[in-house]
Design a protein that fits this description.
Blueprint (H helix, E strand, L loop, with lengths): L11 E5 L17 H6 L7 H11 L25 E5 L8 H11 L6 H4 L1 E2 L2 E2 L3 H7 L6 H26 L1
Parallel strand pairs: 1-2
Antiparallel strand pairs: 3-4
Helix pairs in contact: 3-5
Length: 166
């Protein structure tokens, strides 16, 4: 597996996951006691929540978006090297997750889930409303265009699948 070029590329790339409050993925073994797993303090922590904690501690990273976070930190100030952060794509069909992703690409220095939804001192009830307040989404035409784009990508995938396997 390590013989392929992808493992030796520079700069390295980090896939940055995100989640809603308390909805992070937890990995555990089949024979683990679920109470012990949930009591583990590391279960409540994720790359995303640790990024928010670092924004509260280090002033240098408060001017960065979540995507830019790994250019400066690897859980402590980065001294050597370069890294590119990438957030996985999210379909508009997933609703709030799509709007959260938009905010994570634009808003800087996030310290909490509530702060992500806060614009000019006003906390909005949804990530979608916060996107509109920041004028990241002009109107429903943007949403329609994204749905059309997603539909076209799905058609291309189906067509490619048909050509390869039928």
């Amino acid at each position: 597996m390590f013989k392929y070029d992808v493992h030796y590329r520079y700069p390295s790339m980090v896939r940055q996951h995100f989640h809603f409050l308390g909805k992070q993925q937890i990995v555990y073994e089949e024979d683990d006691d679920i109470d012990n797993v949930l009591d583990n303090p590391f279960v409540a922590s994720s790359m995303f929540t640790t990024c928010m904690e670092c924004n509260a501690i280090y002033r240098d990273v408060q001017k960065l978006t979540y995507v830019e976070f790994h250019t400066k930190l690897v859980w402590k100030p980065r001294k050597v090297g370069k890294c590119i952060g990438r957030i996985h794509s999210v379909s508009l069909n997933l609703g709030e997750a799509y709007f959260l992703r938009i905010l994570l690409n634009k808003v800087r220095g996030l310290k909490s889930f509530e702060e992500i939804r806060t614009v000019n001192g006003e906390e909005y009830s949804s990530f979608r409303d916060a996107c509109y307040a920041l004028r990241l989404l002009d109107d429903d035409n943007e949403t329609s265009m994204q749905l059309k784009k997603q539909f076209i990508m799905n058609l291309i995938f189906i067509y490619d699948f048909y050509l390869l396997y039928c």
